[in-house]
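Run: sequence + magnesium ion -> complex structure.
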Amino acid sequence: MPKFKVLAVVGSEEMRLALRKQFSSDDEIAMVGFAAMDTAVLGKIAGYAPHVVLLAQEEGEAGVMEIAQRIYQGFPGCALVLLAHRLDMRLVRAAMEAGIRQVVAMDDAGSLKDAVIRAAVFEKGRNGETGREPRVIAVYGGKGGAGKTTVAVNLAVALAQTGRRTALVDLCLNYGDAALLLNITARDTIAELVQDKSIFSIDDVKSFSIQHSSGVSVLCSPASPEHAEYITPRHVETLIGTIRPYYDFVVIDLPGNLSECTLTALENSDDILMVSRMDISNLHAAKQALGIFRTLQQEEKLVLLLNAEHKGVLKRRDFEQVLEQSVLQTIPEDAKTARLSQERGVPFVIGMPRTPIAQGVRRLADRWLSERLREGA
Ligand SMILES: Nc1ncnc2c1ncn2[C@@H]1O[C@H](COP(=O)(O)OP(=O)(O)OP(=O)(O)O)[C@@H](O)[C@H]1O
Ligand SMILES: [Mg+2]
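>> structure
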């Protein structure tokens, strides 16, 4: 059986020796190299392509989480394990937020092998080794208040919770509110990104994004509506093309209008998740949007989600008949949970995971994970 390759980022000679000794004749783990805790470590990872990077938290070492985050974002397929002086909740939480899969105390060398193997095995689930292509999911709906942002934010978080690298891009350029639902205060947004750079790299996008504690990388909408005009369809196209290879899922929250930027986002997405409430004006808007998607030859990408399902006159089958399109799924109405989660800035898939509305979004995420998208429910 091939061994798991481990690169250890350890400064101390003593610890390097101890690790070498511990794994020198291990039949599952191969210690392929050592590096110091500096930016050169990224080059070494590219060279060795290890399954696991073992980071030792050394005395006075403040940058370990920052390096971890950069490895997590830049090297899918490479799992992170932290060797820490002392385990406490604050450290473990910071480690998880930086993408570290396992934390082991330095004086607990006996647990290290198990932690390394578990980290490597879990990591396989989040990277491209599964053979999956990245998916760009545009969340659209012609009607204001249909639940697009609620669905986009919770869907992105639910995907990230499974360990998939997930980005959320708020392209509601005038009045985007995804940041509010995540309790994020963004100094940098897409407006600053496009003002700062005419051509941007993944590092530029990441430096203008915010890493939410769930693991979702969030590029926020402009802080003020008048900044929306800085963003052109060209920017939107470049942005999607730039970030696509670096994530398993990119979720885009779109406004109801069909501006040039919205159309560009729709055209550059793999799936269009059309969110509609179950009333007559939403049905009317969905019918109109569908007509436009047909004209633009985007209909194939469409999946239909009925949000805030309740006992009313219009049923799921009415939507299917009028739209001539099967409904992928419904999400139940739960105004209280939706409102509370919005006010607290904690997506309900995190804060209230047992509610039917949260389970509905999780089921939706599962469809993307298992690619059961266009077969109806
Ligand atoms: N399943 C649901 N049950 C009850 N209320 C919901 C549900 N989904 C969303 N809501 C509520 O509906 C309102 C509108 O939701 P949201 O902001 O997500 O819609 P939107 O389509 O993004 O709106 P906009 O067009 O303004 O961007 C919010 O108050 C939200 O809490
Ligand atoms: Mg919205």
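>> summary
The radius of gyration is 22 Å. The chain has a mean pLDDT of 90.
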